[in-house]
């Protein structure tokens, strides 16, 4: 494995960003642009239809899959990570999703959505492997920061285009919490430059997302596992929280932070997720072993009563609804294995703390938003990107200690 690593470290710049990760990286980056060009509003009745826009996205997914398979077939490092790391559990989850076409309420939907998750997860792995063999760890993280900034900007453009506007507003940027919060701890604690840190941290904090706030709060607990600098930050955060609790009533503090803008405190004040979860849990009890088919099951069951909702907004529930208990088990094992994979590594404390914090944040995100466990939508790509890079970087930091500059 080590013989495939190049220890001559070039620099990644804004200009070289687009091609630094080769064709896989370009395809991943260009997806944001393609989405702007072909996106359109679709009603629920059109969810399973295939129009010109859907056809282009299907063809693009096929291209991404073909390119990924080609690169990984010639890449021992990428294949090693796929088969010998927690990514193998994610791959098994997606294979099970593919098999669910055999019992799905909509086989074509389950088949394509499963193929899509395989295509993009392999593409993201190809991107990391390409970068990991050619650049230092610091430069890989820099590429990652450019990717999230690019995703935020083009996500905001897509939002404005859907609204019929010709400019990017502050509101559209603040709506990009899916593309900002998974990278929150990286942007906050790695030396990536003021504007990258300011932009991503500001969007994450001003997202007014309960799920994001809970993820950031729980993720921050692992800063105590870091070096002296991160421990200082952790104790400052804890100290600030204790002061706020002492000054304000605890319920008032929750109302003005995690449950800001809601009518009360509790799961029932989470924009309808409690009702979606109740319906999903009742439906799971009817088919606990097989489920109803990947994506198709949650889409049609939940929308039967909630016309504005397409999915469960919870990866674990999505897994069980689609593939039964085994789907839920694989989902849980992937996150647990990823966490302990990093936790058990003998790597620098600052990396371990930031990685564990980010894993926790992504896990919470995927339990409250469309993400890992369901289709390629919402926080799915940012989450898979950050976890794939964390797993790969943890390996490099363990066995290639001189990869940092």
UniProtKB/TrEMBL annotation:
UniProt keyword Membrane, yes or no: yes
Sorted UniProt keywords: Membrane, Transmembrane, Transmembrane helix
Transmembrane annotation, as ranges: 12-34, 54-73, 85-105, 111-131, 143-163, 183-208, 229-248, 316-342, 354-373, 379-399
Superkingdom, taxonomy of origin: Bacteria
Official protein name in the record: O-antigen ligase domain-containing protein
């Amino acid at each position: 494995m080590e013989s495939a690593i190049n220890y001559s470290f070039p620099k990644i710049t804004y200009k070289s960003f687009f091609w630094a990760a080769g064709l896989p990286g370009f395809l991943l980056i260009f997806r944001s642009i393609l989405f702007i060009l072909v996106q359109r509003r679709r009603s629920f009745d059109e969810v399973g239809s295939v129009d010109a826009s859907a056809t282009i996205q299907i063809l693009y997914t096929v291209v991404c899959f073909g390119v990924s398979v080609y690169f990984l077939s010639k890449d021992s490092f990428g294949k090693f990570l796929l088969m010998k790391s927690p990514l193998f559990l994610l791959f098994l989850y997606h294979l099970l999703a593919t098999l669910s076409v055999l019992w799905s309420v909509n086989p074509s939907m389950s088949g394509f959505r499963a193929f899509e998750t395989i295509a993009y997860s392999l593409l993201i792995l190809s991107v990391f492997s390409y970068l990991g063999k050619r650049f230092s760890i610091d430069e890989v993280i820099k590429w990652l920061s450019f990717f999230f900034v690019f995703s935020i900007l083009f996500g905001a453009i897509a939002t404005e285009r859907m609204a019929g506007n010709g400019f990017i507003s502050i509101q559209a940027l603040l709506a990009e919490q899916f593309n900002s919060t998974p990278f929150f701890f990286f942007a906050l604690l790695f030396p990536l430059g003021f504007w990258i840190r300011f932009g991503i941290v500001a969007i994450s904090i001003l997202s007014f997302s309960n799920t994001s706030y809970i993820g950031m709060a729980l993720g921050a607990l692992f800063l105590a596992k870091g070096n002296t600098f991160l421990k200082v930050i952790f104790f400052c955060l804890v100290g600030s929280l204790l002061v706020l609790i002492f000054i304000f009533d605890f319920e008032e503090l929750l109302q003005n932070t995690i449950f800001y803008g809601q009518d009360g405190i509790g799961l029932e004040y989470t924009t309808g997720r409690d009702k979606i979860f109740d319906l999903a849990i009742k439906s799971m009890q009817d088919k606990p072993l097989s489920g109803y088919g990947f994506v198709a099951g949650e889409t049609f069951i939940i929308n039967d009563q909630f016309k504005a909702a397409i999915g469960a907004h919870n990866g674990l529930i999505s897994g069980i609804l689609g593939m039964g208990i085994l789907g839920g088990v694989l989902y849980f094992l992937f996150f647990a294995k990823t966490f302990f994979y990093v936790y058990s590594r003998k790597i620098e404390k600052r990396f371990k703390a930031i990685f564990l914090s980010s894993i926790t944040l992504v896990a919470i995100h995927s339990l409250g938003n469309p993400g890992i466990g369901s289709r390629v939508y919402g926080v799915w790509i940012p989450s898979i990107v950050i976890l794939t890079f964390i797993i790969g970087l943890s390996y490099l930091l363990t066995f290639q200690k001189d990869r940092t500059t």
